[in-house]
Amino acid sequence: MFGWFKKPEKRLRLLVQSEADVLPVSALLQDAALRGEDIAYDPKARTLTLRLNRFCHERGGKALRVVSALQIGDVTAIRSRGFNLTKPPLGLSILSLSVTPAEAPSCVIDVAFAGKAHPQLQIEVECLDMVLVDLAAPHRARSVPQHPET
């Protein structure tokens, strides 16, 4: 009647510890929107956290977004291309995540963003250790991402 008897939806919580785990997380993060100020690096803890507004592609065409966080652990270095990390842009949209192996077990995580300058974050990690967590219940999206047919 008033939603009292509705079961609360389970929030997404994913752990990434192998290269095979990155592709599904990349698909879930496609079209996620974030501001430059939502990128937080803690060199002491060696973590990089991205707070983002993720489009819920897994909801079968429903126009929903959810506030999420992606935390990457064991970070040894971060480089940006197409923007300055000290003065990040107002808005970014994630295109994809990919992993390039380095000397085992270390690797480089590439976060590609949409835009004419092809902005990108390259995150060197000692080992692959990422967590994707939904922080709130989904809410209605103002718009649906449009991708050109190829």
Q: Distance N terminus to C terminus?
A: 46 Å
Low-confidence spans: none
Strand proportion, as a percent range, falls in: 35-45%
Number of domains: 1
Structure explained in plain terms:
The chain has 150 residues and is mainly β. It has one domain. The chain has one helix and eleven strands, in the order βαββββββββββ. The strands form two sheets. Strands 1, 3, 4, 5, 10 and 11 form a six-stranded antiparallel sheet that branches. The protein has a five-stranded antiparallel sheet with strand order 2-7-8-9-6. Strand 7 (92-101) and strand 8 (107-113) form a beta hairpin. The model has no long low-confidence stretch (mean pLDDT 88).
How is the topology of this model organized?
Blueprint: E1 13-16, H1 19-29, E2 33-34, E3 39-42, E4 47-55, E5 64-72, E6 75-81, E7 92-101, E8 107-113, E9 120-125, E10 130-134, E11 139-140
Antiparallel strand pairs: 1-10, 2-7, 3-4, 4-5, 5-10, 5-11, 6-9, 7-8, 8-9
Short description:
It contains one helix and eleven strands, in the order βαββββββββββ. It is mainly beta and 150 residues long. Strands 1, 3, 4, 5, 10 and 11 form a six-stranded antiparallel beta sheet that branches. The chain has a five-stranded antiparallel beta sheet with strand order 2-7-8-9-6.
